[in-house]
Amino acid sequence: MFLGLKLLFLILISPFIIGLFLYGLKKKSKFIGKIILTIYTFGIGFILIMSIIGTLSKKKILDKSDFYGEYAIDRNYFSGKQADWQYNNFRFEIKENDSIYFYVTDGEIINETFKGKISTLAPYQSARLVIEMENPNHHILTTNPTIYREAWDFFMVFKSPKFNNMYFRKAEWKEVELENKTKKTHHSTK
């Protein structure tokens, strides 16, 4: 029904729009013609700019191959000591054979690896990640991630019972220096 109303509106309005434009072209040397053509120029420019902005800001449509790669904690989403600590202690990788390897690390050193398989569901246009881990499993991977799509990228949020939301983004892990937890203080005596 909504499509029918759009079509009816288009059929009724388009002769008026075309006629007004032709009238503006016919009277282009007069003041009224210049106003009509200026309005049409701004209108067409506005429509073009809005369609370009809409195209550039449209959320990315994901398929299974988009999930392949290395993931690290997104330290820009929530920055600070906790994010830096998570970044240096957790990361994972999804390989093209649909395997996932979740690493518990101490910086560059991998202390423990949890393995599993991935698949995707596409209840709508964009794919959702489904993770099936082998036992034993890590608490971060007890549920499937929530996928947040952006215009050119996406990130995953895992709900950890210990750390709450953990934000992972596709990125190559690079070493990050942690701030000292204990600061030395000097006391002066008089």
Tags for this model:
single chain; 190 residues; alpha+beta; 8-stranded antiparallel sheet; 3 helices; 29% strand; elongated; disordered C terminus
Question: Which helices and strands, and how do they pair?
Answer:
Elements: H1 2-26, H2 31-56, E1 69-73, H3 81-89, E2 90-94, E3 99-106, E4 109-121, E5 128-133, E6 146-149, E7 154-160, E8 164-170
Antiparallel strand pairs: 1-2, 1-8, 2-3, 3-4, 4-5, 6-7, 7-8
Structural write-up:
By secondary structure, this protein is of the alpha+beta class. It is 32% helix and 29% strand. An eight-stranded antiparallel β-sheet has the order 5-4-3-2-1-8-7-6. Strand 6 and strand 7 (154-160) form a beta hairpin. Helix 1 crosses helix 2 (31-56). 12% of the residues are buried.
